[in-house]
Write a structure and sequence with these properties.
disordered C terminus, cytoplasm, about 290 residues, IST1 homolog, mainly alpha
């Protein structure tokens, strides 16, 4: 009779083995991708563009796969770092729900390369129940990482991505390549989408810092007469009158000495009565102290 409880020791061991295997696979696939890039450069040089595009699509999928493996490795590391929390709680912690859901979802898609993921997904299913595992496999709660879903997608890569890969490979290996004008035209149109926001006229050196020439005095930046989107109420623009440069600057004011006649003030101010100075006769009447031998 099979046990319905998870084996935490087995789960922890497989998480560590999975991380090591993912690191080795990432290194191996990256080295193979570099060799494939050199072969694609040779195909471009010989004019075999169609074959080069097919090879580039394979490289793009491998690059996506490597990035997905990096994310799975991070999720395994997260579960190991919070293994005590995972072991003690019966419900999925909010800080682990994305990691647990992504590992269960990616297990059948990466099991051919990383067999340990199957064991990890099985132990997590025993931990949180089969209904929860089924929700993760179908991503009904949308807790699976969107990046992993995108990287492990089986759809063909966009044509624009293929062209950009070819351009970079040709540039790296110094090979002449003319990209597809229709694809690049579509990219240029996407980059020049007008979102309807009017552009304000630029006034060099006007108020916000930076170099350039100073704006003319009294200049006000106003929006053009284009329609403003979303029908937001717009404040009225008021022109602040500028100072006249040709106005004469008044001379500095210095008070004259007549306004402050200190002599007159001294005459008006009464002096206090001073004590009398003792005379010489009063000093002689004071007995003198003599030293007696």
């Amino acid at each position: 009779m099979f046990s319905s409880k998870p084996n935490y020791s087995q789960l922890k061991t497989n998480l560590k083995i999975c991380m090591n295997r993912l690191k080795l696979l990432q290194k191996k696939k990256t080295e193979l991708a570099m060799k494939s890039r050199a072969e694609i450069a040779d195909l471009i040089a010989t004019g075999k563009i169609d074959r080069a595009k097919i090879r580039v699509e394979h490289i793009i999928r491998e690059d996506y796969l490597v990035e997905a493996m990096e994310l799975v490795e991070l999720y395994c590391d997260l579960l190991l770092a919070r293994f005590g929390l995972l072991q003690s709680s019966s419900q999925v912690d909010c800080g682990l729900v994305e990691a647990v859901s992504s590992l269960i979802w990616s297990a059948p898609r990466l099991s051919s390369d990383v067999q340990e993921l199957t064991t990890i997904a099985k132990q997590l299913s025993l931990k949180y129940g089969e209904p929860f595992a089924q929700v993760c496999r179908e991503n009904r709660d949308e807790n699976v990482s969107e990046r992993i879903i995108h990287k492990l997608s089986v759809e063909a890569p966009p044509k624009l991505t293929v062209e950009k890969y070819l351009i970079e490979i040709a540039k790296y290996y110094d090979v002449t390549y003319e990209p597809d004008p229709q694809v690049m035209k579509h990219d240029a149109e996407q980059q020049l989408i007008d979102i309807g926001i009017p552009n304000l006229p630029f006034i060099p050196g006007g108020g916000l810092g930076g170099g350039g020439f100073d704006a003319k005095i009294g200049a006000v930046a106003t929006a053009p007469a284009a329609s403003i989107p979303f029908n937001y109420p717009q404040p009225s623009v008021k022109t602040i009158p500028a100072a006249r440069v040709d106005d004469e600057i008044p001379p500095p004011y210095y008070p004259s000495s007549k306004e402050f006649d200190f002599d007159d003030d001294d005459k008006k101010m009464p002096f206090p009565d001073l004590p009398d100075i003792p005379s010489d006769s009063s000093r002689k009447s004071t007995p003198e102290l003599t030293n007696k031998e």
